[in-house]
Amino acid sequence: MSEAKRALVTGASSGIGAAIVTRLLRDGWSVIGISRTRPEPGDADRPGFEHRPADLGDPASLTAALTGLAPVDALVHAAGVLRVGRLEEDTDADARAMWRLHVEAATQLVRWVTPSLPVAGRIVLIGSRVANGAAGRAQYAATKAALIGLARSWAAELASRAITVNVIAPGATDTPMLRDPARSASAPKMPPLGRFVKPEEVAGLTAFLLSDEGSSMTGQSLIMCGGSSLAG
């Protein structure tokens, strides 16, 4: 029997990242999960899962987590944070935190994986529909928009090795981030489909992009929003 493919997944302890870990383990992948806290019992105790604690907001902490790690076949950067506030309210500290986690950590991870990523390797970055812009979310939108530019650039650079790089851009997703009391003043609108995106749906699209069937998709930003983008 062939050895299981290995995926490195950030944000593995909750929300979209945890759902991706569950899906990939179910599909037979071996998964290395990076997050500040260990996932709840379940996936964390399953064969094929390894947890490496790290604060992705700290470059040195992420470097330590990656040190000694064997090469992987895929990278999924799902860790994220949302800080909201209108122009006169948002802070430089919040902007820096989101830029570090979404953009700089993604760059650090991709620089680490690509030298040893095999032919037909996969990179998936979890972005946001808000990358198109939204009132009260300017800094968040800027960091998620940057992921699209990075993904398209990296996709062009790595195409000769058949390595794909894509962004999944969910709308409001039913995760702890959605229910964070800190964002109660700017609660998301219910999508036209009448429900929020499920983390398992984002995980399913991720699994497709990592599969053989997803091998011709690269440099794309795939919006999954329950119809929210239909209204602009």
Written overview of the protein:
It is a single chain. With 232 residues, the protein is an alpha/beta fold. It has five helices and seven strands, in the order βαββαβαβαβαβ. A seven-stranded parallel sheet has the order 3-2-1-4-5-6-7, sandwiched between helices. α5 (199-210) links the parallel β6 and β7. The chain starts with 5 loop residues before the first strand and ends in an 8-residue tail after the last strand.
Task: Describe the structure using short key phrases.
single chain; 232 residues; alpha/beta; seven-stranded parallel sheet; 5 helices; 32% helix
List the helices and strands and how they pair.
Elements: E1 6-10, H1 15-26, E2 30-35, E3 49-53, H2 59-66, E4 74-77, H3 92-113, E5 122-126, H4 138-158, E6 164-170, H5 199-210, E7 221-224
Parallel strand pairs: 1-2, 1-4, 2-3, 4-5, 5-6, 6-7
Helix pairs in contact: 1-5, 2-3, 3-4
Provide a quick synopsis of the model.
This protein has 232 residues and is an alpha/beta fold. The chain has helices spanning 15-26, 59-66, 92-113, 138-158, 199-210, and strands at 6-10, 30-35, 49-53, 74-77, 122-126, 164-170, 221-224.
